[in-house]
């Protein structure tokens, strides 16, 4: 069963390019100097495109590109849209914390059930953890949807740089 990008919080894509990876990477390096709408950082085969600090908000996306060489005349671009890594780490930490607390309450509920004690509080707290997890998920979806225009701007910038490279 294949999932669509509608459910994915961090959309990914692949593009096969008809030029070597070094010339594509150099195109991003050159564009970095010619414009000021985006911050472009290059580390080895990776390019990170994000908005300047004054245009960023909590859910501001960034675009991470990895451009791998296939052969001398072609390369494969892997792209990943996502929030700032600090925001994503916090978001994942909260998910794991909720999951850990859910597991702890389920163990406590099972223990009380086997001892034939009341376990209603633990079940209630487990349901609360499920509600919090759903809230986190929808919070991420709202953050993603509020950043759609910015994601399109990042994508348009990437396509503009790639199209300048075409002969």
In summary, what is this structure?
Keywords: Membrane, Transmembrane, Transmembrane helix. The chain has 167 residues and is of the alpha+beta class. It contains 4 helices and 5 strands, in the order E-H-E-E-E-E-H-H-H.
**Percentage beta strand:** 15-25%
The best one-word shape is: elongated
**What does the main sheet amount to?**
5 strands, antiparallel
Strand element count: 5
Q: Would you list the SSEs in sequence order as H and E?
A: EHEEEEHHH
Unreliable stretches (pLDDT < 50, length at least 5) are 1-5
| Radius of gyration of CA atoms, rounded to a whole number | 22 Å
Structural class of the helix and strand makeup? alpha+beta
Distance between the termini: 39 Å
Please give the order of strands in the largest beta sheet: 1-5-4-3-2
Helix content: 40-55%
Give the count of helical stretches: 4
Mean pLDDT: 88
Give your account of this protein's structure.
This is GTP-binding protein. It is a single chain. With 167 residues, this protein is an alpha+beta fold. It has helices at 21-34, 85-114, 120-146, 148-165, and strands at 12-17, 39-43, 46-50, 61-71, 74-83.
Write the layout of secondary structure elements.
Blueprint: E1 12-17, H1 21-34, E2 39-43, E3 46-50, E4 61-71, E5 74-83, H2 85-114, H3 120-146, H4 148-165
Antiparallel strand pairs: 1-5, 2-3, 3-4, 4-5
Helix pairs in contact: 1-4, 2-3
Transmembrane segments: 87-107, 119-139
Keywords: Membrane, Transmembrane, Transmembrane helix
Protein name: GTP-binding protein
